[in-house]
Amino acid sequence: MNLFSKLQNAGKQPNPLAYELPQGLRVQIMRLWEKGFGPDERWHPGPGRAYIEINRILCDEHQLMQLPQASQQSIPLQGVIAEYFILLNDTGKTLDVVQVVFNTMERLLHRISDGSGDMFYKSRYQAFEIINELNQRFQENNVGFKYVQGRIEKIHQGPPPMPLKERLVAGEPARNLQKIKDMIGTAVVTAVHDPYTTTGSLDTILKLADTGAKFSPLLRILGTEKTLSKSTEKKSFMGLLKDINSERKASWKARVYPASSKPHRRFLILQDGSVVTCGMSLNHIDKDEVLDHETAGSENAQHDHKLFEQQWKIAIAI
What we know:
With 318 residues, this protein is α+β, with helices and mostly antiparallel strands. Helix content is 44%, strand content 17%.
């Protein structure tokens, strides 16, 4: 319901998300599962079956012979589970109860029957309706959890992480080449950092140029000494680089630096300050790897710019 207190607080700046379940929210959750399963009556066997299943799973997983009961009077199993849930001090185990109860609801509600039909015939709700209400209650109480397909997920503070734009796929080198080109867009590539730079890397750069990717006439290519240590590979690389500069009337330069540990960072620096990061080396793009675009000024883009310039200063020309 749109109660006055909710409407009054609607425009206020929310507090940081909490990661515990206050008593008021626990009561709301308990009422939700009672609403979903329906009344636990003698001639309505569904809820009884559900509570037996919930009790069994909680005892197994929480290593209990039986759920502890604080009240002195005799109460039905539904009440024992509710009491256990309300009095738990361990937030993790409290969320376990939520997970077990609503997973049981998803599996059993209106899905099992006896000789007379639906065992939950007195429940007027479907599981997804109750679960939607559960997640709404989490949100209303500014609690950073949600129930999704049988599990509890934590909602992290702050803006969500940027999703990866593309994924390169093994067995699709031509499409991978197009994905890299599309990620570059209309920007101009001014520098390439690829610790495993080889002649194959230059071939890939040429293929990208043929598809429409733009490379600066002053392109800087930075690799490591190890990959070009063989004289035959170095001679082949330098020959192709010379031919490229002659044909393109360019002044591409290549340098290598010593790598003390196995390097992994591979990226293209664009003229607008942004960076395209590649999970694989340009010498072989036929792999399952990530491909992403770091915006200009972002922390990752600044890190890559700094890394490139530092290594370029200590690197030696091939």
